[in-house]
Automatic annotation (TrEMBL):
Belongs to the SCAMP family. InterPro entries: SCAMP (IPR007273). It comes from Stylophora pistillata. This is Secretory carrier-associated membrane protein. The keyword Transport applies. Residues 88-122 form a coiled coil. The lineage of its organism: Eukaryota, Metazoa, Cnidaria, Anthozoa, Hexacorallia.
Length: 345
C-alpha cells in the first residue's frame, strides 16, 4: 500500500503551472472576472486588457455649388387709397350738421334749465308764443313749453292737440286759397263772392279763437289738473267739431269749400274742383282726429278725478281771488255804505 500513497509528481522537478504562458493566462482570467460588472454600460463591460471599439466618424458630403439666391426685399404694405373728394366733402358736411344740432340742443337745454330755475324761485317767465321776430313791435302773449309745463304722462296728448291746432290753421289757409281760386276762375258765379268773403272771416277769426278757445284750456287743464279748464275745453271743442262738420259739407255761399259745392264746380273747372275736394277732405279728416282727441282727453279727465263740482269750486275760488273782482266788490260795498249813511242823514 505504500506504493499508492506516493505522489507521482513528487519526483518530477517540473511544475506544469509554473510555466510563464500558463501563469499569464490564469492571471488574466482571474482579473477579468473581478472587473466584470453586468450592470455597467456595454462600453465599460469590456475586459480591461481589451481596446475599446471606436465608431468611425461619418464625413459630411462635399458641398455642391448652388445658384446664388436673389437678395431679400423688405415687405412693403400696399398704400391705402384716399376716398374721393366728394366723399370727404360729404362727411365734412355731415359733421358740420351734427355739430350745429348739438349746439342747438345744448342751447335749448340751457334755456329750459333757466326757465325751471325761474319757476323754482318764483321768477317771471318770459312769454314765447306766438314766436314773433325781435324787431316786431308786438310781443308774444303766452308762455308755451310742453316739456316744462306738462307732466310727462300727458305730454304726448298735449303735443297731439297742439299739432291738431296747427293742421286746423293750415286747413283754414287752404280753404281761403281754394275760395280765391274759385273767385278767380268764376266757376260758381252765384256764390263765389260770398264764399271768398266768408273764407277770409273764418281765417282771421277761427285761427286765434281756436287757440284761445280749446287748445289753451286743454293746455292749462293738463298742466294744473284743473276741472274748470277741462269743462271749458269740452264745451268749446264740441262746438268746434260741429262747425267742422258744417265746413266739410260745403254749402254754397257758406264760406268753405266742401263736398257739395266741390261737386258742382268740378264739372266746370277740374283744377278748382280738385282743390275744393282737398279742402273738404282736410275738414273730414280733422273731424275724425277731433273725436279721437276728445275721447283721449276725456279719459284723462276721468282718471284725474275731475268733476263738475270741482269745476264749480275752482270757478268760485278763482273769481273770489281775482283782484279786479275784489276791487269791484269793494267799490260796490263802499258805495252801498255811503248811500246808506246819506239816507240816514
Amino acid at each position: 500500500m505504500a506504493g499508492f500513497e506516493d505522489n507521482p509528481f513528487a519526483g518530477d522537478s517540473e511544475n506544469p503551472f509554473a510555466d510563464p504562458s500558463v501563469a499569464s493566462v490564469t492571471n488574466n482570467a482571474s482579473r477579468g472576472l473581478e472587473d466584470f460588472n453586468p450592470f455597467a454600460d456595454a462600453n465599460n463591460s469590456q475586459p480591461t486588457g481589451a481596446k475599446p471599439k471606436t465608431t468611425p466618424a461619418v464625413q459630411p458630403p462635399p458641398l455642391q455649388p448652388t445658384a446664388a439666391a436673389p437678395p431679400s426685399q423688405p415687405a412693403v404694405l400696399p398704400a391705402k387709397e384716399e376716398p374721393p373728394a366728394y366723399v370727404i366733402a360729404e362727411e365734412q358736411e355731415n359733421l358740420r350738421k351734427r355739430q350745429e344740432d348739438l349746439e342747438r340742443k345744448a342751447a335749448e337745454l340751457q334755456r329750459k334749465e333757466q326757465e325751471l330755475q325761474r319757476m323754482q324761485f318764483g321768477g317771471y317767465r318770459e312769454n314765447n308764443f306766438p314766436p314773433l321776430p325781435q324787431r316786431c313791435p308786438c310781443k308774444p302773449c303766452f308762455f308755451h313749453d310742453i316739456s316744462i309745463d306738462i307732466p310727462i304722462e300727458y305730454q304726448w296728448t298735449c303735443k297731439m292737440v297742439f299739432i291738431r291746432w296747427q293742421v286746423y290753421s293750415f286747413t283754414m289757409v287752404f280753404n281761403f286759397l281754394a275760395a280765391f281760386a274759385l273767385l278767380v276762375k268764376g266757376a260758381d258765379q252765384v256764390h263765389e263772392g260770398e264764399t271768398f268773403g266768408l273764407s277770409i272771416l273764418y281765417l282771421i277769426v277761427n285761427v286765434p279763437f281756436s287757440f284761445l278757445g280749446w287748445y289753451r284750456p286743454c293746455y292749462n287743464a293738463l298742466k294744473n289738473d284743473s276741472s274748470f279748464s277741462y269743462i271749458i275745453f269740452f264745451l268749446i271743442y264740441f262746438l268746434h267739431i260741429g262747425l267742422n262738420i258744417f265746413y266739410c259739407l260745403g254749402f254754397p255761399g257758406g264760406g268753405t269749400c266742401g263736398f257739395i259745392n266741390a261737386t258742382q264746380v268740378i264739372h266746370q273747372d277740374v283744377a278748382v274742383g280738385a282743390m275744393m275736394f282737398i279742402a273738404a277732405l282736410l275738414f273730414l279728416v280733422g273731424v275724425i282726429a277731433d273725436i279721437s282727441l276728445l275721447m283721449k282727453v276725456h279719459t284723462i279727465y276721468r282718471l284725474a278725478g275731475a268733476s263738475l263740482q270741482k269745476a264749480q269750486g275752482e270757478f268760485a275760488s278763482g273769481v273770489a281771488s281775482n283782484p279786479h273782482v275784489q276791487s269791484a266788490a269793494t267799490n260796490v260795498a263802499a258805495a252801498g255804505v255811503r248811500s246808506a249813511m246819506t239816507n240816514q242823514k
